[in-house]
Structure formats: C-alpha cells, structure tokens
Amino acid sequence: MTGAWNNSQHPSELDPFYNVRDELSVQNGIIFKGDRCIIPNAMRNEILSQIHTHIGIEGCLKRARECVYWPRMNSELRDYISKCDVCQSLAMKQPRETLKSHDVPSRPWAKIGTDLFTLSGNDYLITVDYYSSFFEVDRLDDTSSKTVINKLKQHFARWGIPEKVISDNGPQYSSEQFKQFSKQWDFQHKTSSPGHAQSNGKVENAVKTAKRLMRKARKPNSDPYIA
Ligand SMILES: [Zn+2]
C-alpha cells in the first residue's frame, strides 16, 4: 500500500502511518499492519475498553499488540490502564521475585534449580525443574561438592542434561569441581546474585513443599522419599 503516498495530496491523518506504509495492506475494506488490524480514530476508545481486562498494563499491551494497531496505541493504552484502580493495585502487589525471576524455559528439564537443605539433622539435596516445578529430593551422606555432583549426575542420566543449572554460591556449587562438572557435562551454571535470595524463588518454594511433605510422612513405617 504505497501508491497513496506518491500523491502529495494524501490526507494528513495518514501522516502517522507513513513510516509503516510498507507493512500496510487492505483486506475487505479493513487496513492491516502485518497481522494487526488498524483501528480508526473513532473506534479507539471502544477498542481500549475491550482490550482492558484487569490483568495489568503489560498483559493488556501484549493482547493489543497481537491484534490491533494505531499510532501511539501503547501510550494511549498505558494512560487508559493507569486510570484503573484494580490494575494499579495489581501492579503494586507484584512480588519482587517476578522482577528478578529467570526467564521461563520452553520445555521440561531445560532449566533446573538446585539447593541443599536440612531437616531433623539430615542434609538433603533438592533438584527442581523450572518448567514443571517437579522436584527430586536426595538424602546426602555429606555436603561435599563431590556428593552433590554425584547425585546430580544420577538425575541428569535419568532425565537428560539440562541447558541451565541455577544454584546459590554455596561451597558445593562454587567449587572448582563443580566448574569442571559443568564443562564436562556441557551445561550453563548460573549462581543467583548474592543478597537476593528471591531470585531463586523456584527452589525455595520447592524446599518448603518438600519439608512439609517430609514432615507429614515422618510417621512410623512411612518413607519420606515417596511422600
Ligand atoms: Zn483494570
């Protein structure tokens, strides 16, 4: 849709579209920019109210960008949502974790978190899949790097080698041995930023769940591993 602009007489309301003219097309009398329907001026308020559900500004923007377009749509939508008390209070409640949380993996076992915890004087290793939240708990004879690595190797042998392993900076994970392990098994090892425990919230939540299940299971003749 470039013809109209060759004519210097084009109406000035088309000016904002000049920069995107190569992406425009017309189907059944509706103008599209790529896959997105261009909304005429007179309909924009109506569309704003349709896009708006109380999912907060980012969610609304995402929905809008998938199907509609007009110049300054993003800022008009931001203005519109900023007047909604529900969306505003939602934005306030966003926990810090989501700001720092790691990107979401696309498949199971691509990205795992691991940490140690103690319960009733015993040491355990927890290994959590970021995609499914599935986790495994291993009882540890000791908390050495070697022991932790051996347990992880067993999981990797069974479930595959993840692309990314997230842990804290504990001695088991910051050791030279662990560095070698990550090289030999070819995964990326990322340690959560010190002083920001939130950034490994996935693992912390799994530890809470594991402890709860294990306490529940600690009755006579019950096996904490099948809790
Ligand atoms: Zn709202």
Can you describe this structure?
The protein has 227 residues and is an alpha/beta fold. The chain has 2 domains: 91 residues, Orthogonal Bundle (Endonuclease III, domain 1); 127 residues, Ribonuclease H-like superfamily/Ribonuclease H (Nucleotidyltransferase, domain 5). The chain contains 10 helices and 9 strands. Strands 7-6-5-8-9 form a 5-stranded mixed β-sheet, with helices on both faces. Strands 1-2-3-4 form a 4-stranded mixed β-sheet. Helix 3 runs antiparallel to helix 4. The longest helix is centred in the C-terminal third of the chain and has 17 residues. About 2% of the residues have low confidence. Zinc ion binds next to helix 5. Pfam families: Integrase_H2C2, rve.
Can you lay out the helices and strands and say which pair or pack?
Layout: H1 3-6, E1 24-27, E2 30-33, E3 36-38, H2 44-51, H3 56-67, E4 68-69, H4 73-82, H5 85-93, H6 96-100, E5 111-119, E6 122-129, E7 135-140, H7 145-159, E8 164-167, H8 171-174, H9 176-184, E9 188-191, H10 201-217
Parallel strand pairs: 3-4, 5-8, 8-9
Antiparallel strand pairs: 1-2, 2-3, 5-6, 6-7
The structure holds zinc ion (ZN).
Residues 52, 54, 84, 86-87 line the site of zinc ion.
GO molecular function: nucleic acid binding
Pfam families: Integrase_H2C2, rve
Protein name: Integrase catalytic domain-containing protein
